[in-house]
Design goal:
Pfam family, one: GHL10
Keywords: Hydrolase, Signal
Number of domains: 2
CATH superfamily of the largest domain: Glycosidases
Protein name: Glycoside hydrolase family 10 protein
Strand content: 5-15%
Helix content: 25-40%
Largest sheet: 8 strands, parallel, barrel
Oligomer: single chain
Structural class: alpha/beta
CATH architecture of the largest domain: Alpha-Beta Barrel
Number of helices: 15
Signal peptide: 1-23
Organism: Streptomyces kebangsaanensis
């Protein structure tokens, strides 16, 4: 797959767009002209991940008062509005816990410092209400299988389901995970997540890239017993694991559509499905991780079969990066989404901008703007989501400000 360049609109194409009520932006992306009242009717995803795991973006630390936590949360929503974003992916189940009063799982320790301790308010309910008041969509972001960033079950809340069902738990790489190969686990995590979908008018349900854990060299994921009990009829353990993940995706999608029609269900996978050297259908990359083989997530099938409403591959590399060129991957994902009902948004590594540890390309504050210009050449690429909220707010390298000035001059609604 060759290097991708931006496609230019011809004069004839621009004329056709004008006739049909569209105009072209400075980036070349077609966009609807203003309606009769002068309001923009543009549609593209302009999203921001708001991570709560390990207090990454919010709250800034554990133990803050409820008022201070709310102030920090609404300040981040205000930032999203100022940056002309339209959607926030709010992480509400970071480690088999909850940022709402869940009957299934304990309150997250990232709120108070103590897992299971009531913070005195409802973060998810407040986030939905305050986002909608600002004209933002709110997608509830869940991590299905991660239990803890440590490997000591005794540190979990006494009532934690992982302590009540130790047979559900697999320690791996210094962390704790639920075993995706157990039907009881899949049923439970789906039930726990869907409680939020039933209780709150969320605009979407969002998974990130963690299904089976990222592999640790020389360390097997111990699901021998589950495979012995449930893996019959599969050609290999890998095929069985992929089927386990496929089942979670399909069953969650069906439940979301049943419980809250109109809510979107999307997933943000690691950006490489398979390298072409592994599978000719894969991308011309040399990534060290392939979701199909290492995380047992067949992301290509989910998109092509339309199981999910949108996909946000994490294309966290610069244009020209040898092992995983951003341009190559945008082209590959656009081709994968072409003809599917699944909408393609591109996950952007705002957190790398200006970081000297990330290489020369990321020290250029225009790198991200070039990403949006390049993606504008693909009609399948219907927007971008930025990681993450802290950098959207602080913007230490000025990269986000350049994106807004060059690409987000007018408001836009998210695609539906």
């Amino acid at each position: 797959m060759g290097r991708v360049t931006r496609r230019a609109f011809t004069a004839t194409a621009l004329s056709a767009l004008a006739v049909t009520g569209y105009a072209a932006t400075a980036t070349g992306r077609p966009r609807r002209a203003a309606d009769a009242r002068g309001r923009s009717t543009a549609t593209e995803m302009r999203g921001m991940w708001l991570a709560t795991v390990d207090n990454r973006d919010w709250p800034s630390r554990t133990g803050l008062s409820a008022a201070r936590q709310q102030d920090e949360l609404t300040a981040l929503l205000d930032v999203a509005v100022r940056r002309r974003l339209n959607t926030v992916m709010f992480q509400v189940r970071p480690t088999a816990d909850a940022l709402w009063p869940s009957p299934y799982e304990p309150w997250s320790r990232y709120l108070t410092g103590t897992q299971g301790k009531d913070p005195g308010w409802d973060p998810l309910g407040t986030a939905v209400r305050e986002a909608h008041a600002r004209g933002l969509e709110l997608h509830a972001w869940f991590n299905p299988y991660r239990i803890a960033l440590h490997a000591d079950p005794s540190r979990l809340a006494a009532s934690h389901p992982a302590r009540e069902h130790p047979d559900w738990v697999v320690p791996y790489g210094g962390r704790l995970y639920y075993n995706p190969g157990l039907p009881a686990v899949r049923a439970f995590v789906r039930q726990a997540m869907l409680d939020a979908v039933r209780g709150y008018p969320v605009d979407g349900v969002h998974f990130d890239d963690y299904f089976y854990p990222y592999p640790v060299a020389g360390l097997p994921f111990d699901d021998d017993d589950a495979y012995a009990r449930h893996g019959g009829g599969f050609a290999s353990r890998a095929a069985w694991r992929r089927d386990n993940v496929d089942r979670l995706v399909r069953e969650t999608a069906e439940a979301v559509r049943r419980i809250r029609p109109g809510a979107q269900f999307g997933i943000s996978p690691f950006g490489v499905w398979r390298n072409a050297s592994t599978d000719p259908r894969g991308s011309d990359t040399r990534a060290g991780v392939q979701t199909y083989d290492d995380l047992y997530a067949d992301t290509r099938t989910w998109v092509e079969e339309g199981w999910i409403d949108y996909v946000v591959p994490q294309l966290y590399w610069n244009i020209g990066f040898a092992a995983a060129d951003y341009a190559t991957l945008v082209s590959w994902w656009a081709g994968t989404a072409r003809g599917s009902r699944t909408k393609l948004y591109v996950g952007e590594a705002l957190y790398k901008a200006g970081d000297p540890a990330q290489g020369a390309a990321w020290r250029d504050p225009d790198e991200l703007s070039r990403h949006l210009t390049l993606a504008a050449g693909y009609p399948e690429a219907r927007g971008h989501v930025f990681f993450a909220g802290k950098e959207v707010a602080a913007d230490p390298a000025g990269a986000m400000a350049r994106v807004v000035a060059g690409h987000y001059r007018q408001p836009a609604d998210p695609p539906r």
